[in-house]
Amino acid sequence: MERGKMAEAESLETAAEHERILREIESTDTACIGPTLRSVYDGEEHGRFMEKLETRIRNHDREIEKMCNFHYQGFVDSITELLKVRGEAQKLKNQVTDTNRKLQHEGKELVIAMEELKQCRLQQRNISATVDKLMLCLPVLEMYSKLRDQMKTKRHYPALKTLEHLEHTYLPQVSHYRFCKVMVDNIPKLREEIKDVSMSDLKDFLESIRKHSDKIGETAMKQAQQQRNLDNIVLQQPRIGSKRKSKKDAYIIFDTEIESTSPKSEQDSGILDVEDEDDDEEVPGAQDLVDFSPVYRCLHIYSVLGARETFENYYRKQRRKQARLVLQPPSNMHETLDGYRKYFNQIVGFFVVEDHILHTTQGLVNKAYIDELWEMALSKTIAALRTHSSYCSDPNLVLDLKNLIVLFADTLQVYGFPVNQLFDMLLEIRDQYSETLLKKWAGIFRNILDSDNYSPIPVTSEEMYKKVVGQFPFQDTELEKQPFPKKFPFSEFVPKVYNQIKEFIYACLKFSEDLHLSSTEVDDMIRKSTNLLLTRTLSNSLQNVIKRKNIGLTELVQIIINTTHLEKSCKYLEEFITNITNVLPETVHTTKLYGTTTFKDARHAAEEEIYTNLNQKIDQFLQLADYDWMTGDLGNKASDYLVDLIAFLRSTFAVFTHLPGKVAQTACMSACKHLATSLMQLLLEAEVRQLTLGALQQFNLDVRECEQFARSGPVPGFQEDTLQLAFIDLRQLLDLFIQWDWSTYLADYGQPNCKYLRVNPKTALTLLEKISREMKDTSRKNNMFAQFRKNERDKQKLIDAVAKQLRGLTSSHHS
Predict the structure, then answer these.
(1) What average pLDDT score do residues 188-211 get?
(2) Contact indicator for 326, 350 with CB cutoff of 8 Å
(3) Which among 162, 700, 773, 780 has the fewest CB atoms less than 10 Å away?
(4) Closest Cα to residue 669, out of 620, 712, 719, 722?
């Protein structure tokens, strides 16, 4: 029973399940019925489900049939009405067809027009789209065309700006077009082309600057010269404050320039053509000659391209190379001033350009770079000037060179370059200038001294007298009172030498101008140079004249007179230097002129030369002496040569009237002493082995002639018998032998007041031996002892005894 209940329960559950499945089949979409049917086939009641399904189908068929039977009459009525409508529909169709045909026929032209309108509208739409696209492309093409034009006209910086706008603003709007891609691909090439072309312009600019540096420097130096001339005209007195033109003035010509952040201009690079200006016209500014736009353009282009450092390095490297070329002087620079001028012009031109670049660009060059270049230039320039100036032998060229160096230094100082080393070097050149002046004046003095006639200057009129006095400071009241014609005591070389000394001082003063030296320094320089002129150059010239072989006594006397007057003029030279330097002689450390010493030395040399010359003349006369030392004849007059000698001495000493008294007296005394000494040597010379007392008597007559000349007072100023003392040795010796006063000589020898005080025993012995030899010669019969021949032995013994005593006196004298 339980099984029956369980079976019944399972049957109910199965029936309920089948019912659910059937409801799902009825309510579910056909596409989703698969899972429902699968559940049927998965179960075990497939048959019963099929039965349930058949039953449900039959139920639905019965319901459909009932519904159809209920609505059949309505359906029939509907079919009947539909059949009626079909006829009407056919008529309507025919009417519509006919109407359509008519409409088609009537609307054929409209369709054609509408088709044309459609095409027009399509074209209009296409045109509008094209216009829109072209409006986007035209600015691009215009910018590109503008870029090409700018490239063609070498306006590279605007071209670069155009390229930037084209790349970043216009091309992105039309980047999908093929021509834009071509442009984009071409942009790097255009940049490189702009970069290369601008660099080429810069190279042309650098080459042009190198070639025209001398023109730029010449203009800058001409400006500096005009400014200095203007200062001298306006001030006419020592300037207070700075002597240099300010930096602001140097750049006033750039007031109209544009800022350094944009190109200066779009003109071609190089030097602008400027015609030579006359001296009285305004000189253009040095920088006005130069178009710096290539530098600015290239700088900005490289800055925009991000290669500014590359450009700066290239520019500085090239300019350093050019600096080395500019600083290399030509080998023949020292030959002419133009060589130095061109050298300075190139250096000034180089640094004017660099200074302008420094102040008109931001960082292309800096102060350290300029200072480094200037230090190199300064050292090389000074070295070159030292080398080449040492070859200069013309003082005018050295002076012109100095003025050129001063102008060179002044010009560069205007632009802020330190030039103290140049002025220090000028002090070195000053010494060289002094040497060249001394050499030049040595020739001048030589010509003056060689061309002088060494005769007093004759004047025949007051005008001539004033002319000479105007050339040389001379005052003589007695000479002024004398009537014309009259003579100055000195010869022409005195005023000429005096004026040349003044010219030398002027020449020294010229070199000191514009060296910014104090008056004391200038005064010291002039005095030292003048001292060199006096003590070395003039002194040597005078000494050379004095030492000439053919110099005469008259010339020597005139030289003494001339140097005496030049010595007196030294104080006027001192005053002359004081007047031009405004430094009083009493100032501490003021150098004194050594002219007095120079002229004294020259005068002493001339005096010595006079003494020597006189002695030589005396020797020449003595060479004419022809004594017969063996003669027995007693003469009654002096020898002819001695008479001529005395006549010569009288005429010579008559010329000494204008000499200082002591000079004439010294010359006369020297001549008499030399004559006495020479006569003594003539008497005692070793070649004369024998002599007679007759010859000694003739010699005595000659000595008496000399003593007579001494007593006559050929030169005033001697005290009585002073000049005769020159012959005292000869006189006492001759008296001793002629008077044969040996007893007195031997007895009084050594006494201060003895009669034969000046007779030397050795001299007496020499002369006695000569007489003794003659007496021993038996072949001689005409000697003064012939009448006493019988007593020869006794006399010979006497001579031998005297000789023995003389030898004893000589030995004791030596001991």
Answers:
(1) 79
(2) yes
(3) 773
(4) 722
Based on the domain organization, do 439 and 406 belong to the same domain?
no
Who's near 543: CB < 8 A, 6+ residues apart? Answer: 602, 605
Element (H, E) at 270: strand 270-271
| Same domain, residue pair 505 and 629 | no
Q: Of all residues in the chain, what percent carry a pLDDT higher than 70? A: 85
Crossing angle for the helix pair 178-235 and 395-414, to the nearest 10 degrees: 120
Task: Please provide the DSSP assignment of 675-739 as one string.
Answer: HHHHHHHHHH-TT-----HHHHHHHHHHHHHHHHHHHT-SSTTPPTTTGGGGGHHHHHHHHHHHH
Average pLDDT value for residue range 541-562 = 83
Q: Among 353, 385, 417, where does a domain finish?
A: 417
652 is a domain residue: yes
Q: Name the residue range of residue 334's domain.
A: 177-229+287-417
The reply to whether 197 falls in a domain is yes
Q: Which residue in the block uniquely carries the two structure tokens 């007559």?
A: 701
404 & 493 share domain: no
Q: Report helix, strand or coil for 350.
A: helix
Q: Are residues 444 and 374 in the same domain?
A: no
Which residue(s) pair with 487 in the sheet? 458
Q: Which residue has the tokens 């072209």?
A: 134
Q: Residue 486 carries which DSSP code?
A: E
Q: Residue 75: what pLDDT?
A: 83
Domain count, the chain: 4
Same domain for 598 and 477:
yes
Cα gap 445→370, rounded to integer Å:
50
Whole-angstrom Cα Rg for the chain: 69
- Predicted pLDDT at 3: 65
- Dihedrals φ, ψ of 290, to 5°? -115, 135
Cα 742 to Cα 510: distance, rounded to the nearest angstrom? 79
Query: Does 265 have pLDDT greater than 60?
Result: no
As a whole number, mean pLDDT of residues 199-211 equals: 81
Mean pLDDT of 523-535: 85
Residue tagged 């007057």 (tokens):
565
Q: Which pair of structure tokens corresponds to residue 271? A: 């030097």
Q: How far apart are the first and last CA of the chain?
A: 205
CA atoms within 13 A on the CB side of 557: 19
**255 DSSP 8-state letter:** T
Residue 798 covered by a domain: no
Range in 78-92, 194-208, 401-415, 502-516 with the lowest mean pLDDT: 194-208
Measured CA to CA, the distance from residue 121 to residue 119 in angstroms comes to 5
What whole-number distance in Å separates Cα of residue 600 and Cα of residue 416?
A: 53
Whole-number pLDDT of residue 120: 93
Assess contact for 221 and 411: CB atoms under 8 A: yes
What letter represents residue 308's amino acid?
R
- Model pTM? 0.64
Question: Do 312 and 447 share a domain, yes or no?
Answer: no
Cα–Cα distances in angstroms (integers) from residue 511 to residues 389, 395, 504, 517, in the given order: 15, 10, 11, 11
Look up the CATH number of the domain holding residue 525.
1.10.357.30
- Please, which residues have CB within 8 angstroms of residue 372's CB and are 6 or more apart in sequence? none
Q: Determine which helix (DSSP H) or strand (DSSP E) holds 97, and give its type and residue range.
A: helix 46-152
